[in-house]
Amino acid sequence: xxxxxxxxxxxxxxxxxxxxxxxxxxxxxxxxxxxxxxxxxxxxxxxxxxxxxxxxxxxxxxxxxxxxxxxxxxxxxxxxxxxxxxxxxxxxxxxxxxxxxxxxxxxxxxxxxxxxxxxxxxxxxxxxxxxxxxxxxxxxxxxxxxxxxxxxxxxxxxxx
Length: 160
Prior knowledge:
Number of domains: 1
Distance between the termini: 28 Å
Structural class: alpha/beta
Helix content: 25-40%
Strand content: 15-25%
Radius of gyration: 14 Å
């Protein structure tokens, strides 16, 4: 299911995922398994020096190697900036779906970050302030893991 968050920006889970070209859609796949693994063609883990270790873009799809552990952040800033750049390039001509496995943590965090930075739609002075507004006014299902909350709190200003 695709949940419209703002204008042409949607959040979804694996159920909303599609990997084929769909007119008027662009997709950020914010999950290692199954999307990044399937697109790049590997099982297990990629070597960190692989050219597509963090991301792989093909057509209207961006595949991110993102895992979301409950407490320890295992994220790279470049993964989030790549997602923001992709959304910024695609949103004028397309609807953009950002999905992760459950549609609760990674994908809505990317959308929140987009709305706070590029879109300047929600408050951006701090992650807690943006999170509260996002949950209240845009996506009540937002349930970020402890790891992603720590990462966004520590890197908020740099990611904007």
